[in-house]
Amino acid sequence: SNKLAGYNIPGLTDKIIVNLYADDTMIFLSKTDRYGDLEEILSRWCTASGAKFNLEKTEIIPIGSKTHRDRILQTRIIHPLDPPLDDNIKVAPDGHPIRSLGAWIGNKTNDLTPWEPILNNINTAFKRWNKGHPTLEGKRLIVQMMAGGMTQFLAKVQGMPKSIKSALIKMIRNFIWNDAHTSPINLEQMYKTKEEGGINLLDIKSRNEAIEIVWVKSYLDLSESRPTWALLMDIIINSIRPRTNNNETKNTNPLLTSWSPPTKGNKVSSLPRAAQTLLKTARKHNISFAPIKISKDMKKKLPAWNH
Questions:
Q1: For residue range 56-101, what is the model confidence (pLDDT) as tens digits?
Q2: pTM value?
Q3: Rounded to the nearest 5°, which phi and psi values hold at 99?
Q4: SS (H, E, C) 75-121
Q5: Could you tell me which of 176, 162, 174 has the C-alpha nearest to residue 205?
Q6: d(Cα 78, Cα 265) in Å, to the nearest integer?
Q7: 43-53 in b/e burial notation, b at 16+ Cβ within 10 A?
Q8: Radius of gyration of the chain (CA)
């Protein structure tokens, strides 16, 4: 519908208005969009399709300045011409994340919040499995299933904070050695293959690092399948770029230019944690865009300045 403006992202042909996955729907409204127009569109769509939106599960995350977010939270009015939102609709205040497709999003949220129940579930599972007195090989498989399986998705979509990683590694160590004060064999040795004297135990640190490297790989994808988040990341990282006369670089992948984004300092700390992790991973592994052969189409997509 032309009634909704949505968001225009540099590099994307189509504007972003709706994201559909299974029975989840996420809708993006710009400052000029009215919630009333959205309700009218959804009502007509439900009448035509026979489907029904569950308004009781509708959640709204205000985007913008803190003043704007507080105003929506207090008045429950998104657009000046809209009436107050229905009481069943939840407006997320700062610090209260909302779950979306398995990830937790919101304003000024605590990165530890979604991880706490996962750690509790893993700890409970370890205690339950320990009652069966599993062998060392059995414990290796249990760690892979529980600690690995329960954390991989969230680590992929949201990253794992250092404190959570440390707590999880300690939990694995205690499970393997039955809470012994001193480990007979350190975990670094246990991570190795059987040929090297280990048991191929899940190495959470290396697993997480591999996930972060895949992030950078996706970020450097310049093909038509480049993910939308990578285009937004260009804008976010370039927000700390020193001011120059060349404004053309503000939406360019910074890893393709001569500018080397910092990984420390006040400017970097202002970036989202995902952006900081991406930059630190690229710097640590000396990741750069250096293909052996580039097609003509790819050459046209590369910046012709500042490199």
A1: 788 999 998 999 999 999 999 999 889 999 888 899 999 999 988 7
A2: 0.84
A3: -80, 130
A4: HCCCCCCCCCCCCCCEECCCCCCEEECCEEECCCCCCCCCHHHHHHH
A5: 162
A6: 36
A7: eeeeeeeeeee
A8: 24
